[in-house]
Amino acid sequence: MIRGSCLCGAVAFEIEGSLTPIQLCHAARCRKATGGAFAPELLAPATGFRWARGEDRVSVYEAPLLEEPPAYRRAFCRTCGSPLPIEMPGGVFVGLLAGVLDDDPGTQPFRHAFLRQQAAWYTIEDELPRFEWRPPRP
Question: I want to staple 11 with a disulfide (CB 3.0 to 4.6 A). Which of 23, 54, 114, 121 is the partner?
């Protein structure tokens, strides 16, 4: 089991099952949602996800579509603002950011995405595959 929580501890969750490798997303929306150079995104099986506490403290922000579906959605703790897991379109996966995990996810970053929107102040120094826009779906 992999556990995660928000900064203030009001919200906690648990995941049973394997997580995907971590995608480092450099899209402007992802950078703004995290306040970092990129968003370390990964997916968990929706059937193995459960809120341990504080589900009533979770809010969802849905940004307007820019070009094509799906909509950009982010969940966060209403108390501290920490990003939290959110159900992905189709309901098969829950998307989350690696930084809110309390336990080792058992996976590592495997690629960079949306490099056309990369922060000017950040230099990538690894050899992971790089994609100018959305990478192909596996």
Answer: 54
